[in-house]
Design a protein that fits this description.
The complex is a heterodimer of chains A (277) and B (163). Chain A is α+β, with helices and mostly antiparallel strands. Chain A has helices at residues 2-12, 19-23, 30-52, 54-57, 87-96, 134-139, 157-161, 187-191, 213-217, 223-227, 244-251; strands at residues 73-78, 105-113, 117-120, 140-149, 167-169, 175-177, 198-199, 206-207, 233-237, 254-255, 267-270. Chain B has helices at residues 8-31, 45-51, 68-76, 84-88, 111-117, 141-144; strands at 36-37, 42-43, 95-96, 99-100. The chains are: A alpha+beta (277), B mainly alpha (163). Chains A and B meet through helix 5, strand 2, strand 4, strand 5 and helix 9 of A and strand 1, strand 2 and helix 2 of B.
Chain lengths: 277, 163
């Protein structure tokens, strides 16, 4: 409905400039009021078109689950299985040459006590976790580790804010960064609600988990999934009903991180405790 | 001499605007990559670039041509879900093409095992843990008397860990 209205208004705005009326200014003239009205409605129509028009949908089209792509990849993290060894962090670093002190994936340890919830991730869990001291152990009610990474959202805020189209969602579900096109402006780093993006110190471009796109295209699993010893990380094709990730949707309860952000992550968590942010 | 009229400045302005528009379109067409995907707004060739990244880890199947016995053994016991490369380093450091180029890492230190098995409050219930005091994991008599440097491999085989 809004679209139709705006089109009518646009037509009304088409003969805008009455030069004679401008040449002999008359504050009370109808034509001046009309001119202002026309300019205003033209501007409104343009705004409406920009928000609801074809330009606005260009970002999300084809990225939705309904896409016709042959594969629809998804990632599953099972908190009940994670032992916090850090194999995934080490393998990701090596596979993707991630600079020191930057992480495409990392593991957080949560310790819940009566006083509150404590979270730590020493060096991204590159070397696993230290033994907790007696004080912490006495206070802890429970503790668990949570692997984190890019959630490959269906509605990625990082893609919306990129000014040059250097980050995008493929039909198969990967959210990727085009390093040949990225300016390193870091808008996407700020837009990501999961803190999954960073500016790579070596190449000065935006960087993040790619679900090991290069490995998946070569028929392998992502590096982190390859080295996970306890099936805490699963990756597969939702279109294949036999894949491990597809079975998660049949058998288990799953959650996503920060559902209130409406980013529609395609990285699903099983056994996610309420404390996790 | 060019005749000026009260409207000539408007024509000049229009001329400048047209010039700007042409320049803008020229720069835009020059700056837009050939493979640009207008529907999803990205450079199509980016997918080729990203897929060209070399693989580092090969998975357990990459060892099977040369280490059939080790794979068979590992698969039979409790460590069946483990990746060879998480203990021995990625395959690219060890093999190139079909040839061994360097020794694989063989780390016999305790850290290699403690990384996964030393007791931690965060480990899931039921995961076998090495606990000398028996605070979290099962208390095992053989473990209690261990000295700090005794390698785990003295009693456990890394590929078939059950003692």
């Amino acid at each position: 409905m809004k679209m139709d209205n705006s089109k009518i208004k646009l037509q009304a705005a088409s003969p805008p400039l009455d030069l004679k009326a401008m040449a002999e200014p008359n504050p009370n003239s109808d034509s001046r009021r009309e001119f202002l009205r026309n300019v205003l409605s033209g501007a409104t129509a343009a705004t409406v078109l920009m928000v609801f028009g074809p330009g606005a949908t260009a970002f999300s089209k084809g990225a939705k689950k309904s896409s016709k792509a042959q594969h629809q990849f998804a990632y599953v993290i099972n908190i009940n299985n994670c032992i916090g060894c850090g194999n995934c962090v080490r393998a990701c670093k090596r596979e993707n040459n991630v600079p020191a002190a930057q992480f495409r994936t990392w593991v957080e340890r949560y310790v819940t006590t009566k006083k509150g919830v404590y979270v730590e991730s020493p060096d991204g869990a590159l070397k696993g976790f230290e033994k907790a001291n007696a004080e912490v152990r006495a206070a802890a009610k429970r503790s668990f580790t949570v692997p984190k990474m890019c959630n490959h959202c269906d509605d990625p805020p990082c893609v919306q804010v990129c000014p040059v189209g250097a980050t995008f969602k493929t039909e198969e579900g990967f959210v990727l960064v085009d390093h040949g096109h990225c300016l390193g402006c870091a808008y996407c780093v700020q837009a990501c609600p999961y803190g999954a993006r960073f500016i790579n110190k070596d190449i000065h471009k935006s960087d993040k988990c790619t679900w090991c796109y290069h490995r998946v295209k070569a028929g392998k699993l992502p590096a982190c999934v390859t080295v996970c010893p306890n099936k805490a990380r699963l990756f597969g094709d939702l279109n294949d009903p036999d894949s491990e990730v597809a079975q998660v949707f049949e058998e288990d309860q799953w959650m996503v991180l920060k559902p209130e952000m409406h980013t529609d992550p395609t990285c699903y968590y099983v056994g996610l405790p309420r404390e996790v942010v | 001499m060019i005749k000026t009229t009260p409207k000539s400045h408007l024509f000049r302005l229009a001329g400048v605007l047209v010039l700007f528009a042409v320049a803008f379109l020229l720069v835009k067409s020059w700056a837009t990559p050939d493979s640009w995907n207008f529907e999803q707004w990205y450079r199509g060739d980016a997918l080729i670039d990203i897929a060209a990244q070399p693989l580092t880890y090969g998975g357990n199947e990459s060892c099977k041509d040369c280490h059939q016995a080790a794979i068979k053994k590992l698969r039979k016991f409790d460590h069946k879900a483990l990746s060879c490369e998480s203990c021995h380093g990625p395959v690219v450091d060890h093999v190139k093409g079909q040839k061994k180029i360097a020794k694989a890492i063989v780390d016999k230190s305790r850290w290699q095992c403690e990384n996964c098995h030393d007791e931690r409050i965060n480990r899931p219930k039921g995961f076998p843990q090495f606990s000398q005091a028996g605070e979290i994991g099962k208390s095992i008599k053989k473990h209690k008397d261990l000295e700090a440097e005794t390698p785990c491999l003295k009693c456990h085989d890394a590929h078939d860990p059950t003692p």
